[in-house]
Specification:
This protein has 187 residues and is of the alpha/beta class. The protein is 39% helix and 19% strand. It comes from Caldimonas mangrovi.
Length: 187
Amino acid sequence: MSEIYISTDVETDGPIPGPHSMLSFASAAYTCDKQLLGTFSANLDTLENASPHPKTMEWWSTQPEAWAACRKDPEPPAQAMRRYVDWIASLKGKPVFVAYPAGFDFLFVYWYLMRFVGQSPFSHSALDVKSYAMAVLKTEYRQSTKRNMPSQWFDKLPHTHVALDDAIEQGALFCNMLKANHENGTA
């Protein structure tokens, strides 16, 4: 079985899961040659006894369209996370969690998976796009920002803060980075 890169984006109402909620998340499953195998998205009910973080909500007030998108038809987290695990299991390959930044997105997805399903199809592994860019560009981590990445790595896809749009965009970016790395003979 080959690897399937599960590009994932989350939208939250605070910096950490538990005290705050994951409002929405989405994944786009890619092969290494950038074939989009499928997508998954869900809007979630907020956690019982959790509350929004004031700074996060201040930011959300500047994103009314994205806020409306992540609050449309929310479902219980247990239901959404079970559907997510089933969706990943339906893919023919080994899932690799991919995010930008993985440290934030994986934290929420892993916490929700363990809390509501009791398992993670990713184990403890998450691939960070920015860290991969650091290796491909042979630069320092803080220099591996999007503004320093080659323009050919970017497809003309929107970054809207709607989880599915952003998961698709960052998955295409990651696949373009993989291709560049293979072409340079450093893979």
